[in-house]
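ugh ok so i messed up the first submission bc i forgot one of the chains. this is the corrected input, ALL of the components this time, i swear. 424 residues overall. if the numbers dont match what u have on ur side tell me asap before i send this to the collaborators (the ones from the other lab, u know who)
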Amino acid sequence: LPSHSDIAPPPDDPGAFLAAQRSAYDDLVARGLKFDLTRGKPGPEQLDLSEALLTLPTTHTSGGVDVRNYGGLEGLLGLRELFAELFGVQVSQFVAQGNASLTLMKDVLVDCMLKGPVDGTPWKDQGPIKFLCPVPGYDRHHALLEWLGIDMVPVPMQADGPDVAAVEALVKDDPSIKGMWLVPTYANPSGSVTEADKAARLAAMPTAASDFKILWDNAYGLHHLTEVETKTADIISLAAANGHPDRPIMFASTSKITFAGAGVSFLAASERNVQWYLKHLGMGSIGPDKVNHLRHLEFFKDADGVRAHMRKHAAIIKPKFDAVQEVLSTRLGAYPQIATWTEPIGGYFVSLDVLPGTASRVVQLAKEAGVALTPAGASFPYGNDPQDTNIRLAPTFPSLEEVRVAMEAVATCVLLAAAEKLAG
Ligand code: PMP
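and heres the new structure output, hopefully the right one now
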């Protein structure tokens, strides 16, 4: 697309700026695009990397277990050993289950509500309770809490993890704050990585609620985009060392490693938490899909097999992330007052902050130009971005060329929305 953005932005000449952006937008609409940047899904090429799974496993026994039969609620040992190594936790603290880690998160919260956590009484009996939510964050975390009637208190997400001082101040006196979400590595959508010092403070901080939980959603712990293989802080050991062994519960899955619809999910926590979890799980299952566990074990063979596989994913999606950076820098780099964005080194998202008060307008303009973006505010509790500034970009699913064209379109919409606002 031609760049119409080389006129200096307001306050120099808001009228000319607006006219230039309108004209660029009209050109864009005339192109009749149709793109979807809404969800962080692996693209078809990424799914093809795991195609061999469709012809595995080659046997039906593993470690003397007939995987076709009932049993083994905690998941297949060989697969647990492999992924426990990757996530740096003890096998005895590590469970493998079905395809969606979101289900395990829901299980844990429902169990806490109805039965009480391992170190507390049922949350449903304790009046209104709250969770802290680093923002921007993952919309389904918020939806789950809202569904359970758990109030959400936003805390800022920073480049090196959540604003821990804010968290410490909130949790120390308020026993109704029962926990917090955290995506520690390459967070959705900010790409933030929670540094070890912040993790240590979260593990050690005094909380008024004696059964405070950190739901440590390590969905992107292995999803590096560069040669930097960021190591996730070891929250389980940190919490144990600080006298709060039952505080963290970690989640992960192979949704963005093998098949998003047919992978394996994981839960890791203190052995006491794991036994608590399995006791409740046993009310609804006699065992997980161990055939799928064995299929994954045969496919990867060992931890290095997973690491090599993740480098293949990076080779496919890194150019898409590069294209996002390139287009945003070219089109919006001259306007830091209008747009800033993250440069993640892993995960699935770029978080774009536009001129406050214009994010919804940008999404609407993009929609009218044929580009579907995640709804403005989606990354905030109750869908409410108080500044109306944040937009989550998910570049993995479209092709590289589509990402480029779609990002050009987004840039045009960002500039028009800003120009409208600045022109009053
Ligand atoms: N957690 C986060 C932070 C995610 O971004 C996603 C996927 N978008 C999930 C969990 C979902 O994981 P699963 O497929 O294992 O349910």
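quick check: Residues 40, 100-102, 138, 183, 188, 217, 219, 253, 255, 260, 265 surround 4'-deoxy-4'-aminopyridoxal-5'-phosphate (CB under 6 Å). that seems consistent at least. Residues 1-5 have pLDDT under 50 and may be disordered.
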